[in-house]
Amino acid sequence: MPHRAPAADTAAMAATESVASLHPGHRADVNPAVVLQGVSRRYDVGSGVVYALRDVDLEIDEGEFVVVLGPSGSGKTTLLNLIGALDVASEGRVQVGGHEVTGARRRDLFRFRRDTVSFVFQTFNLFPTLTAVENVQCAVEIGGVARGAAAKAAQALSDVGLADRLHHYPSELSGGEQQRVAIARALATGNPVLVADEPTGDLDFRTGVQVLDVLRRQAEAGHTVVVVTHNREISRIADRVVELSGGRIVSDGPPAAGHADVADLHW
Fold it and tell me: What's the structural domain count of the chain?
């Protein structure tokens, strides 16, 4: 009698096969980390409807460094919020890290955000009364790791070049250092997907380059990294650039100006 795959496995295989055409550069030996199919996000405004995203199809592979590019109001942050389950799609299907986000229960979404996606925000969101290592350690413990949390936090800060700033409070750190603490906090969780919303928006060029170098190295280590920005120069270090306009994807491919190293950036 031929072997029959369980229904859940069959559905998963079918879902993976069904998204192969969403990403022309997709490699058969790499799993998709992010899948959006027919995704729209609409809001009722008065008697009308406003679409932040409309009918978006997108696939991002494991270990890919993707920049989502577009002006204010193009739908970039909405897309990021859907990937991170901070918002829900009005239509379509969202799958991240093998988890179905669409229609998931609140407690499942909490576990998903804790275990699958880490966030880096433009505004850092550090606790002002905690030191750098305590800010990172707090995130590790919330993720369910108590033993060795302090050592893990210290290692994450060391990885972003802040080994000598562990016991400094946010007010004692520069903007670039605070952003690197925020990145260390995201990295310490060990989550496979890292999303960053305008991570260099409030930084000077030198510290912005340092932050981008950290993110680039995370993708090289196997994490899936999605960076939202309006800065076209930043897109040059990406494996792939997804450009949004009016809530729709208008282009998707390698950097138009050619790939660059972080050291070659200027803005």
Answer: 1
Kindly give, in sequence order, each residue whose CB lies less than 8 Å from that of residue 131, ignoring residues fewer than 6 positions away. 166, 167, 168, 169
Q: Where are the beta strands (DSSP E) in 89-158?
A: 91-96, 99-100, 117-120
The reply to whether 204 falls in a domain is yes
Please, are residues 50 and 40 in contact by the beta-carbon 8 Å criterion? no
The 10s digit of each residue's pLDDT in 199-256 is 888 788 888 888 888 899 999 999 999 999 998 889 999 999 999 999 999 999 999 8
Name the maximum alpha-carbon separation found in the chain: 69
The answer as to whether 256 is a domain residue is yes
Q: Which residues fall within 8 angstroms of residue 8, CB to CB, at 6 or more apart?
A: none
Contact 253, 241 (CB under 8 A): yes
What percent of the chain lies above the pLDDT cut of 70? 89
21 inside domain: no
* DSSP 3-state of 219: helix
Q: Contact 53/73 with Cβ under 8 angstroms?
A: no
Q: What Å distances lie between residue 132 and 124, 147, 154, CA to CA?
A: 12, 19, 9
